[in-house]
Design brief:
Keywords: Signal. The chain is an alpha/beta fold. About 40% of the residues lie in helices and about 15% in strands. It is globular, with a radius of gyration of 20 Å.
Amino acid sequence: MFKFAAAVALAGALLSGAAVAQPAKPTVVLVHGAFADSSSWNGVVEILRKDGFSVVAAANPLRSVANDAAYVSDVVGSIAGPVVLVGHSYGGQVISTAANGHDNVKSLVYVAAFAPDAGESVADLAGKFPGGTLSGALAAPVKLSTGGVDLYIDQAKFHDQFASDVPAEQAALMAAAQRPVTEAALTDKSGEPAWKKLPSWFVYGTGDKNIPAAALGIMAERAGSKRTVVVDGASHVVMVSHPEKVAELIEEAAK
């Protein structure tokens, strides 16, 4: 009886030790794109945190690919342990660059996002396929005293163009708080992208008017997407209108 009890105690100790030794879940770093801000991830953040993930919704400067990627790279470098990098729209180009040189980045998730190859820009890819209507929805450019221009979506056109499956009241708030992107950032060419060496996952909607669904599908296939989720009718802000689907895919990438 003593030997049996000792064996049970030992087994319990080993199991307890195994539970303690389980690796921590990766930190999820979310990078918004043009005309959005970090609050666009709120629904996704709520789900991820509930499921035990640490989350950082980085404030993407939207100034240039080199500048923005360097900032996100610094954020990643400050995190101990594994990281899942998630990018929306132009943020996809940023994470494709920012992940380079970081061994702790284990996977990439592209949410209605660009995944350019070396030498490509966001503007190049957006113009290759029919269906995108962003150029006709932009407001007058804002000239910058430092040179160049900032681009915004016309607030009157924001709901239909950017967030058609989001309630009108919410879309109006998003339009007023949108973050501008420089024209230069959209024409910056990519260097060697991290998706060539890291596993990637993609999610986007068929109702995206900023990046045509055909372009998103081709980028996902080219990157060797582990799984691509296509949400019928979802707009460019699929993470706002369908946070549960986006969070589910991020958690899959985190495994």
